[in-house]
Specification:
Number of helices: 6
Low-confidence stretches: none
Largest sheet: 6 strands, mixed
Strand order of the largest sheet: 5-6-7-8-10-9
Mean pLDDT: 97
Radius of gyration: 17 Å
Order of helices and strands: EEHEHEHEEHEHEEEEHEEE
Number of strands: 14
Helix content: 10-25%
Structural class: alpha/beta
Shape: globular
């Protein structure tokens, strides 16, 4: 089977872009299951339900999140009611929604998708992502054929640590959050497909999706500025993971941009 993972969707124009192009990419690349991180779907600090619904309608099977998932109050009841939109699993149990889901891919494969958030240079501190993932894998043992983890974290070392703690036990692990794609797509000795960061689905002429002038005002001039989504052309970034379902091993990791 083939899994397409898309980096952080940033802004409403990125959602429109995916709505127009993602179905043809899924068809052309013979994708069986698509995961996209949508925590910035409505801009810099969160996502609204209408954006999530549009992303699911255009071909995404599961939407993951991160440190901005809870930024829009209207998204909290949506998280509670949706089986396809996730928030990090290591948030407290009292937080609306779930941190993982079980869904079938187009070829019938049972896919467990888990969303985690790192603690390095992020607030508030959440439960240990390693312990959280251990508990989920044990709880759902026998209920899935393929497992996918979105490790949303600032530190590349934290993402790599999750890889080596679970390689051979999880089929696909990819990182999100930095909005910059990494060139380290790999398959471990025990068959786990991995990439440190998928990149971003958002405006090209921006600073991580944000208007350049707003960021420069803040970083260069040390003046307060309101971060707004940049305008202009959009690009989607991610990776495709080929999985041999019988052996449980990833056979190929390919970066994709469109």
């Amino acid at each position: 089977m083939r899994i397409l993972a898309l980096g952080d969707v940033f802004g409403e124009e990125a959602t429109k872009y995916l709505s127009a192009r993602l179905p043809s990419v899924i068809s052309a690349k013979s994708i069986d299951f698509t995961v996209a991180n949508c925590e910035n779907g409505s801009g810099a600090l969160g996502v609204e339900p209408n954006i999530a619904k549009e992303l699911l309608a255009c071909g995404c099977d599961v939407l993951t999140g991160g440190n901005h998932t809870l930024g829009k109050p209207a998204f909290l009841p949506y998280l509670e009611s949706s089986e396809s939109a996730l928030r990090p699993a290591n948030y407290p149990p009292s937080v609306p929604g779930s941190g993982y889901t079980l869904k079938k891919a187009s070829d019938g494969t049972r896919v467990l998708t888990v969303n985690l958030r790192g603690n390095g240079d992020m607030t508030p501190t959440l439960a240990c992502p390693f312990e959280t993932l251990e508990k989920i894998l044990e709880r759902e043992k026998g209920n899935y054929d393929v497992s996918v983890v979105d490790m949303h974290a600032e530190y590349t070392s934290e993402k790599l640590s999750v890889l080596y703690a679970f390689e051979g036990r999880v089929n696909v692990i990819f990182g999100t959050h930095t909005h910059v794609p990494t060139a380290d797509g790999r398959i471990t000795e025990n068959g786990t497909g991995y990439i440190t960061d998928l990149g971003m689905c958002g405006p090209v002429n921006s600073i991580l999706g944000v208007d350049k002038d707003a960021v420069l005002r803040n970083m260069r001039d040390k003046l307060p500025s309101r971060f707004v989504t940049a305008e202009g052309p959009v690009k989607a970034m991610g990776a495709i993971f080929d999985i041999d379902v019988q052996s449980g091993k990833c056979t190929k990791v390919t970066r994709i941009e469109f």
